[in-house]
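Lab notebook: predicted structure, single chain.

Context: the supervisor wants predicted structures on file for every construct in the current expression panel, including those that have not yet been purified. This is the next one on the list. No modifications to the sequence; it matches the entry in the shared construct table.
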Amino acid sequence: MTEDHTDTPRRVKVQDKRRTATPEQGGAGAAPPVAASRGKDGPRGPVLLEETSDREQIPLGEIEEVPSEPELSVAELQRLKADLENARKRMVKEQTRITEHATRRLVEKLLPVLDHFQLALDHGEGGKGIELAIRQAVEVLKGEGLEEVDVPEGAEFDPRLHHAVATYRDPSVAVDTVTKVQRRGYNFRGQSLRSPEVVVAQPADDTEEA
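Prediction complete. Output recorded below exactly as produced.
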């Protein structure tokens, strides 16, 4: 038995795995155009044609028109500008408040240290070096807004400004009088940070027995 070696063209089906699109849709990822090829024995199957560029494959119908931004009136622009300026002022004010609060807390914590150094100087301890260091520290704190409350001895006692830590009767005074500053008081940027602690002499009570 002889085999038939007739020269019959074999048909091979090639599947394009890329995303396909109809010729009407086109676009990126669409299958390239094909054309039928003919041989001496008839059609031999589809043949891929040269692929066109992506720009040529995009149909004009799919390009969306970008909407133009609406025009704003002069009044609307002025209102937007005012809103931005108000927001900026609020942000600056809040940052300033936070900074002042943090500085106040730091200065308040340093006051006891300053008191101890000052007490040592009042007792003749430390010498010139410590005195110079304290003076420089006070100058730095003053630059941040610290102010010492001036309470001269013999000044009239003011309960709104002074804190009395001790009192005694003194017939030589007619009103409550500050005779000694026990601990210095300070203000911070115009606000009371710590009231001065003072000793107060009070007038003698006429009802008291001699």
